[in-house]
């Protein structure tokens, strides 16, 4: 098997295929999400959806096909998305009068409808989310991380004023940070995007950024304050309390199935996947060892454990197939199952099982009488441990002492020579797009975000050396 | 407002718009599902999904775009679906080499993938379901019931032999019947479709059929035994225990957002929607009456009731807006909220509230101390009552004594004269497609299904008068 060190991308592809998360399809850049891959998404959906509803949002569903003329209405939006759109041009044997785009995002369709739905300040805020498939016909694709079709949620809200809309934008970013950190055990930096990295049509874009094990960044979620730009383009007005017409202020925010890819790239190791317990399709696998077939008590006991764990809401599997224990250990490690329980005749004599956490080297002996609580504790502990390991890794590879383009180039070169990860750098930025562009051209590092809580603050621009207006994370990104 | 009696279709459209379930969009035949409409779907999804998982199924997600060549592989399938397909012909500024269809259903894409996934009898059965959007570009559309884009679930399973596949087909039909009857309070007849009404590419199609309040039928769910037709078309083979290659036997089964439309058309009345409690977005609305603004105790008490109901998992709203009670009563009736609670100063003196069930004329007095349990009881009672009302209505309008085409025509004409509903008829059928076709041409009645448990059995064909091989429900259908 390819190692992470030798070829991270190849390791990633091999790992997700062997773990049975996805398959390629004959449609360019479109993957099939197999049950173990899709179930990770279902756990993410469940948690996100719960938090959206707790904060007053409701789900709706909007048409997937968007008339070409809708895109024309907001000029930044069409500029940003038109290079990637697939088009329906014929249906039921006839050529359409107007081309219909497969939605890359739904601001335009929703803007059109909100202009009918919103009449008065009494109708506001409108707090709606949609779970849907979207399309971006990109040249380079990577399963889960960047696919032509992907699954996501997109929130679209409308508010009486900027203050209320900005509050919403921040609230949703916070929810994203909490879910990604608590559920996926992925530490993220939340912050503001620079203008060149904004969503097409946004006044302000905020993101959470995660570091993969090869040091690259993944934008794990974004939340946009759209100002009145879409309200003006689609004429979304309300009658305020003084009986005057005003444009609403809108927001949008999204997370997608790229989170599945991020989990793999943050936690996986040379043995395959490591899944945080809260999203693992199988949390515990039970494996009989030794001469268990001659000793029916072994399977009886494992059946009891299975029933007890299931009753406590733990997702458990019993592997009583004919393969050897070693083969099974390997297979379930590959799939990233958090906990393996081994039970053989000798363990039974001692009234114990062996517990192996996927991310630890040593096995623990567990008294059979304490098994449910011991597993519950280990699942919780492992969830925190994975987060801490990922945070330590990120902090070690997020450099804060590289202050010039030359230093960055030296750092990249020496990383290459030493076979280490160049990682992220925290650097000052004068605010000029040209400096950002030059950093990108010379190093492939792009600005990720301006963190709300940077580890330190920078005073000079990494590129021109002038006074820094912002302290920015730069990284190579997916 | 239009009445059901005068113009049922117009009543339906007005009702779902006033109840805020949907909106039209500029894309032909595509609607927006507003939150109150979408939430009905969420409740359906939750219950279906739970039952699918209980019976060993897992969710997955397959690409929406299907290469044209895939459709060519199963000839009945392409014949059935090609007149309704929308096509993507260009993407990212370039013409595609092969047109891609927006999926009308996924047998072909899934067949292609299963041929890679299934190798041995150990891989079987494959039990996968998908929640997705699908497209059928139909000429006549009706919100929820028949739209160009709709939401559905499609199960796709593969089995070692016919027996196992047919067992699955029946199991899923039974789940559909149970969910539609128990959750949506819609009585259905389960049975087998005649060959002319089969799914394009199926060996056998089974359906559940529901009667709307205008007497028309809606096919509320279908389950297909596909034999080895798709396995042969896509080369899905497995190595059996005797080490020989065999084709798998496949099934597919689906229910869609047309269930939302069915609920409206089965339960609604002249005052608007009537929603079965189990799927109502709001189950209970609390409305202060009388001079409540001068008496802060009223709202305090309603707040207490709100909290108590919410704590018990009941979906409750408090309407303390400035509108008159009469206006509010009307609005919440229109939305089909199962229970309205009224509280005014006089009720407070008597330590009671008034409870009005949406489908009953009389109000009940409820002691404030018993309010949660009284509401819980009423929600359960109402759920059963709606089912019984719908069953009585259906049985009254499902005629079993019309045995010739002439009698059917007379029945239709006299219904028209009397302003009554012609409804369904149970009739004998000789098994000849031509007889079915003639019934359709002359009366617009089509065969709905051959019920497993018909109220009675017929001996002569309604059309040719020869011996009946089957007893069939005929009806005008959506």
Automatic annotation (TrEMBL), chains A, B:
PROSITE patterns assigned: AA_TRNA_LIGASE_II
Keyword Iron recorded: no
Q: Which GO terms describe its molecular function?
A: proline-tRNA ligase activity
Could you say which EC number(s) this protein's record lists? Answer: 6.1.1.15
Tell me the Gene3D superfamilies matching this sequence. Anticodon-binding domain (3.40.50.800), Bira Bifunctional Protein, Domain 2 (3.30.930.10), C-terminal domain of ProRS (3.30.110.30)
**Where is this protein chiefly located?**
cytoplasm
Tell whether ATP-binding is among the UniProt keywords: yes
* Keywords linked to the UniProt accession: Aminoacyl-tRNA synthetase, ATP-binding, Cytoplasm, Ligase, Nucleotide-binding, Protein biosynthesis
Q: Which top EC class is named for this enzyme in its record?
A: ligase
A single Pfam family, by name?
A: ProRS-C_1
Recorded hits in CDD domains, A to Z, give: ProRS_anticodon_zinc, ProRS_core_arch_euk
* InterPro entries per the UniProt record, alphabetical: aa-tRNA-synt_IIb, aa-tRNA-synth_II, aa-tRNA-synth_II/BPL/LPL, Anticodon-bd, Anticodon-bd_dom_sf, Pro-tRNA-ligase_IIa, Pro-tRNA-ligase_IIa_arc-type, Pro-tRNA_ligase_II_C
The Aminoacyl-transfer RNA synthetases class-II family profile domain covers 28-276
Reaction equation(s) it catalyzes: tRNA(Pro) + L-proline + ATP = L-prolyl-tRNA(Pro) + AMP + diphosphate
Q: What is the stated purpose of this protein?
A: Catalyzes the attachment of proline to tRNA(Pro) in a two-step reaction: proline is first activated by ATP to form Pro-AMP and then transferred to the acceptor end of tRNA(Pro).
| Complex formation | Homodimer.
Q: What is known of its domains?
A: Consists of three domains: the N-terminal catalytic domain, the anticodon-binding domain and the C-terminal extension.
Identify this protein by name. Answer: Proline--tRNA ligase
Q: Which organism is it from?
A: Lysinibacillus zambalensis
List the top taxonomic levels of the source. Bacteria, Bacillati, Bacillota, Bacilli, Bacillales
This protein's gene is called proS
């Amino acid at each position: 098997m390819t190692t992470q060190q030798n070829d991270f991308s190849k390791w990633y592809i091999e790992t997700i295929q062997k773990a049975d998360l996805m398959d390629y399809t004959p449609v360019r850049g479109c993957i099939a999400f197999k049950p173990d891959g899709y179930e990770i998404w279902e756990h993410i959906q469940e948690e996100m959806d719960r938090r959206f509803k707790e904060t007053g949002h409701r789900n709706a569903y909007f048409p997937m096909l968007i008339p070409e003329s809708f895109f024309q209405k907001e000029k930044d939006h069409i500029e940003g998305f038109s290079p990637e759109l697939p088009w329906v041009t014929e249906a039921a044997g006839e050529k359409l009068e107007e081309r219909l785009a497969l939605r890359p995002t739904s601001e335009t369709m929703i803007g059109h409808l909100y202009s009918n739905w919103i009449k008065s300040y009494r109708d506001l805020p409108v707090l709606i989310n949609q779970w849907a498939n979207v399309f971006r016909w990109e040249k380079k694709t990577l399963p889960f991380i960047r696919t032509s079709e992907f699954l996501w949620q997109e929130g679209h809200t409308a508010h009486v004023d900027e203050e209320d809309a900005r509050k919403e934008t921040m609230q949703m970013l916070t929810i994203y940070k909490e879910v990604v950190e608590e559920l996926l055990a992925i530490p993220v930096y939340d912050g503001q995007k620079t203008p060149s990295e904004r969503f097409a049509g946004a006044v302000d874009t905020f993101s959470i950024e995660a570091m993969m094990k090869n040091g690259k960044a993944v934008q794990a979620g974004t939340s946009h304050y759209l100002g009145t730009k879409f309200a003006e383009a689609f004429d979304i007005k309300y009658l305020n309390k003084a009986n005057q017409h005003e444009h609403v202020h809108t927001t949008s925010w999204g997370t997608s199935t790229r989170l599945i890819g991020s989990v793999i790239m943050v936690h996986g190791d040379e043995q395959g996947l490591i899944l945080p317990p809260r999203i693992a399709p199988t949390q515990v696998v039970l494996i009989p060892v030794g001469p268990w077939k001659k000793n029916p008590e072994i399977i009886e006991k494992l059946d009891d454990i299975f029933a007890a764990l299931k009753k406590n809401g733990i997702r458990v599997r019993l592997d009583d197939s004919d393969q050897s224990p070693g083969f099974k250990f390997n297979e379930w490690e590959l799939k990233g199952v958090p906990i393996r329980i081994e039970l053989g005749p000798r363990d039974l004599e001692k009234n114990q099982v062996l517990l192996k956490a996927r991310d630890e080297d040593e096995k623990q002996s567990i008294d059979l009488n304490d098994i449910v609580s011991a597993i519950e504790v280990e699942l919780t502990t492992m969830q925190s441990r994975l987060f801490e390991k990922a945070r330590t890794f990120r902090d070690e590879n997020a450099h804060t002492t590289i202050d010039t383009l030359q230093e960055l180039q030296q750092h990249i070169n020496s990383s290459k020579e030493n076979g280490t990860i160049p990682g992220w750098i925290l650097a000052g930025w004068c605010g000029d797009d040209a400096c950002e562009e030059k950093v990108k051209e010379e190093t492939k590092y792009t600005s990720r975000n301006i963190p709300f809580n940077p580890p330190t603050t920078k005073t000079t621009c990494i590129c021109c050396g002038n006074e820094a207006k912002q302290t920015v994370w730069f990284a190579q990104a997916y």
